[in-house]
Design a protein that fits this description.
Layout lengths: L1 E12 L10 E12 L2 E7 L2 E7 L5 E9 L1 H8 L3 E13 L5 E8 L6 E7 L2 H5 L7 E4 L8 H5 L3 H11 L5
Antiparallel strand pairs: 1-5, 1-8, 1-9, 2-3, 2-6, 3-4, 4-5, 6-7, 7-8
């Protein structure tokens, strides 16, 4: 079990980094049993995890517990909203931080969000993002995966028209 404070910032992106295929990539599928508080089940490659996250945007408590495949499948059937599917690329940013670049698929096809996790609030507040990042969306709850999973079809279509990544 891991129990820690998650400190992260989120950004939309202007352009994708070169050589994306050279970076570690994880295939993620996740669903939400609750969004207040966040209780999520996730399959990440061949790993299965139950996660609790407290309220908050940039800083919140996170507890992770391992699941077996059967428990994951059982709990996934009990989730609300859409199942979030994405490819996550782990990209070193050159300053000691790793960028987690989430390229959403299926119901959120085209949405791309970059996340960076930090060990302290001061580190997060002083972060200078790379030039390929666009607007910061950390403080916008619409960009939390739990919120994205609960969008109605009509709202999701409108959201994607506004925020889907456009190649420049």
């Amino acid at each position: 079990m891991s129990d820690n404070m998650e400190i992260e910032k989120k950004y939309l992106v202007k352009s994708l980094p070169d050589n994306l295929a050279d970076y570690e990539c994880k295939t993620i599928e996740q669903g939400y049993l609750s969004i207040t508080p966040v209780v999520r089940v996730r399959k990440q490659n061949d790993e299965y995890i139950l996660t609790y996250k407290s309220g908050g945007l940039m800083i919140r408590k996170e507890v992770e517990l391992p699941l077996d495949k059967d428990s994951y499948k059982h709990l996934l059937k009990k989730t609300d909203g859409c199942i979030i599917s994405k490819k996550r690329y782990v990209i070193p940013d050159g300053t000691g931080q790793n960028i987690e670049l989430d390229i959403f698929t299926k119901s959120l096809e085209g949405l791309i969000i970059a996340e960076v996790e930090f060990t302290s609030e001061s580190e997060a507040l002083s972060y200078n993002p790379p030039s390929w990042f666009d607007v910061e969306v950390t403080d916008n709850p619409a960009f939390q995966n739990s919120t994205l999973s609960s969008l109605t079809d009509e709202v999701r279509v409108s959201f994607l028209k506004k925020y889907v990544y456009q190649k420049h």
